[in-house]
Design brief:
The complex is a heterodimer of chains A (243) and B (416).
Chain A lengths: L1 H14 L2 E2 L5 H13 L4 E12 L2 E12 L3 E8 L7 E5 L2 E5 L6 E4 L1 H4 L4 H8 L2 H4 E11 L2 E10 L8 E6 L5 E7 L5 E13 L2 E11 L5 E11 L17
Antiparallel strand pairs in A: 1-8, 2-3, 2-14, 3-4, 4-5, 5-6, 6-7, 8-9, 9-10, 10-11, 11-12, 12-13, 13-14
Chain B lengths: L1 H18 L6 E17 L16 E14 L5 E13 L3 E17 L2 E8 L34 E10 L2 E7 L2 E3 L7 E4 L1 E10 L2 E10 L5 E10 L3 E10 L3 E6 L2 E6 L2 E11 L5 E9 L5 H19 L4 H9 L8 E12 L3 E10 L5 E10 L4 E11 L11 E14 L4 E2 L1
Antiparallel strand pairs in B: 1-2, 1-22, 1-23, 2-3, 3-4, 4-5, 5-6, 6-7, 7-10, 8-9, 10-11, 11-12, 12-13, 13-16, 14-15, 16-17, 17-18, 18-19, 19-20, 20-21, 21-22
Chain lengths: 243, 416
């Protein structure tokens, strides 16, 4: 019975036409999707996270600063217990800063996944830099034509080894699924809103659903995008908490 | 005096806010307040406290209020940062204290140069419980590495942070100034410290040095690196050439010059389910070796005899010179953090052991966050060790701390 059920589940995949991957087609789509999610090289923006857990809702406010493709600094503004904390993520490592401890602490990717940063991780994924397109399939999404891209992580250290990304025919991201190395689906992400920030069209609201604990979901809203250049020292671990 | 100083600080803050009426300034104020009840069981079998001659109270109360604040100038060219702390202790009698833990003016002189003047908490090193390279760090209690009551205090300093080609070089001058008292505003000593930090192939690497008559003469190295998704390894080593230790000698406890090395290696691993384990081994050549420890035991026994004969001074001296976690040369530290409910309920257990005699401090604690602002906790401490061991000498046998903390934020960041 299980085998039959599995085969039935696989039918939609089997009949979904897999397009031959043209060398630049997948990369081109990812670049356009990334441009809608993070249009600036140097930016600061406000991020509001509302965590829904059964009947409870908790709001976190963060200020996110980014530089280039692989440097980001998250400043925790609220709740009060988190205020003054920072999380620095570089390609070479991650550091957390807590005002009481008063020093940057080196943390491992799994520690980062302990807090709300795990959702930040999902939201800030740089598809072009971190993933390659394995296949592209034509599908229907809510009765409309769409494409699903199967992405494989370039680096085994990435939190999610596989991502399935649904995009509209004009390359607007619709939703994504995040898988860990074991093949287990952990998070589903829905791109809920597009808007104009700092003169650029970009995704302004996403919703993340925890597949393992389905009673948990997070809504993330972006605002106050600012594209001023940021000093290089801001992304130095030793600088954390000093400004 | 306390009120006058508090008002002075507030005045300085307001003056700074008003001095530059340019737009783009930003003010942040946040902090925490808490109260804690402590219950202690005196160790009447400790050679330092026979029959509780020290009259250690069975219960204590402490309350504290810490306010973090900063004002940042437009374009982040300057920043005034402060940490003010008021506390009251009730140990048989009440006492109050107000402290300027940090008050620093920071100026970005160039994109590669920041200058700091004032009092600031610096934390060097990668160790969790001990920091051999942390020559300017506030004194850390390994059994409370997170400083739950936010009691750390900074050092008076003038510093320059230089960011060049991936290096972060910090140069510090630390004048020790007596701010209060009859001879207030007097320079007591001066010291200097330097640290060069760089991220090399994913590893945090920092070289440190310090000297002068206010800081130890030392050279050190600290490292940290993450391997895979769960493992972090770190280490520190320092050589301190001018430290002094009071050791038992024929004439009693005498200061002895003790150049020594301190080495720490450790790591942490995060298991699925978010259980985080930190383990460290620490060696300090300043600690007492077997001969010194036996001599200290002998000194304490003779001090007890003097006490019985009506002379309490030697036993008082022995108590003064007994510093737990510095009476041996080798220790281990283990911390297990189990978030039973993420951001809601967590269980933390710390075990610190002396490798000389196996005596230990075991400290399990539970913290419950009851809302976004309020949390309650209970920490139990048990000293385990037979007669003649380091933790057997500790003047209390066990204790418990029950506390409640409130975290507050005085509004969002205000644009001025």
């Amino acid at each position: 019975v299980k085998t039959v059920a599995l085969l039935v589940c696989l039918i939609p995949l089997a009949i979904a036409p897999l397009t031959a991957i043209e060398p630049d087609e997948g990369a081109r789509i990812l670049k356009r999707v990334d441009a809608l999610r993070n249009p600036m090289d140097n930016f600061s923006l406000d991020l509001e996270l509302i965590n829904y857990r059964k009947t409870e809702a908790e709001t976190w406010r963060l200020r996110v600063h980014g530089q280039g493709k692989d440097k980001s600094l998250v400043e925790f503004l609220s709740p009060a217990t988190e205020k003054g904390k920072y999380l620095l993520m570089l390609r070479d490592g991650m550091w957390a800063y807590v005002p009481d401890a008063n020093k940057p602490i080196r943390i491992s990717p799994l520690q980062r996944l302990m807090g709300e940063a795990s959702n930040g991780d999902v939201a800030r994924t740089n598809y072009s830099a971190d993933y390659v397109v394995g296949s592209i399939a034509e599908v229907e999404e809510d009765g409309k034509p769409a494409r699903v891209l199967d992405l494989k992580a370039k680096d085994s250290d990435l939190s999610y080894s596989r991502v399935r990304l649904w995009v509209s025919p004009d390359d607007i991201p619709l939703r994504a699924e995040y898988y860990v190395g074991s093949g287990k689906l952990l998070k589903r992400l829905f791109f809920r809103e597009l808007g104009m920030l700092y003169g650029s069209r970009m995704v302004t609201k996403v919703e993340i659903i925890d597949v393992v604990r389905p009673d948990r979901r997070t809504v993330m809203s972006y605002s106050n995008l600012d594209a001023r250049p940021l000093p290089e020292k801001m992304f130095q671990p030793g600088y954390l908490g000093k400004w | 005096m306390v009120m006058r100083r508090a008002l002075l600080i507030l005045w300085a803050l307001i003056a700074a806010l008003r001095s530059t009426p340019a737009s783009g300034q930003e003010l942040r104020l946040f902090g925490q307040s808490g109260t804690e009840a402590g219950f202690e069981d005196p160790n009447g079998s400790s050679p330092l406290n026979p029959g509780n001659i020290l009259h250690i109270p069975r219960s204590t109360d402490t309350s504290d209020l810490t306010l973090f604040g900063d004002v940042t100038g437009g374009g982040k060219r300057w920043k005034l940062q402060m940490k003010l702390r008021g506390s009251s202790d009730w140990i048989g009698d009440s006492s109050y204290k107000f402290d300027v833990s940090e008050l620093t003016f920071k100026y970005a002189a160039a994109s590669w140069l920041d200058v700091h003047v004032g009092r600031e908490i610096e934390r060097w090193g990668t160790g969790y419980a001990w920091n051999p390279t942390g020559v300017v760090n506030p004194r850390k209690d390994p059994s409370d590495p997170g400083d739950r009551r936010s009691a750390f205090r900074g050092v008076d300093l003038v510093s320059a942070d230089i960011f060049v080609k991936g290096w972060d070089v910090t140069l510090l001058g630390t004048p020790e100034i007596a701010w209060t008292g009859k001879n207030g505003r007097r320079l007591l000593s001066t010291g200097w410290a330097a640290r060069a930090y760089r991220l090399i192939k994913g590893a945090d690497v920092a070289l440190t040095a310090s000297g002068g008559n206010g800081l130890p003469n030392s050279e050190g190295l600290s490292l940290a690196r993450v391997f895979g998704k769960s493992l972090e390894l770190h280490g520190e080593a320092a050589y301190i050439s001018d430290s002094i230790r009071y050791l038992p000698r024929a004439q009693g406890l005498a200061p002895v010059r003790r150049p020594h090395a301190e080495i720490l290696v450790g790591g942490q691993y995060t298991f699925p389910g978010n259980v985080n384990v930190v383990g460290e081994i620490y060696h300090s050549g300043q600690g007492l070796n077997d001969r010194d420890w036996n001599a200290f035991g002998g000194f304490t026994r003779s001090a007890q005899q003097s006490f019985a004969e009506g002379n309490p001074l030697p036993l008082q001296l022995a108590n003064t010179r007994f510093t737990p976690l510095q009476m041996s040369q080798n220790y281990t530290f283990l911390r297990v953090l189990w978030p039973i409910r993420l951001n809601r309920l967590e269980l933390e257990t710390i075990v610190i052991s002396s490798l000389r005699d196996g005596s230990s401090l075991i400290r399990p604690g539970i913290t419950r966050r009851i809302s976004t602002n309020w949390s309650v906790y209970c920490i139990y401490s048990q000293f385990v060790g037979g007669a003649g061991t380091e933790f057997g000498f500790v003047q209390i046998r066990r204790g418990a701390d029950i506390g409640i903390r409130y975290h507050f934020s005085l509004g969002a960041a205000h644009k001025l």
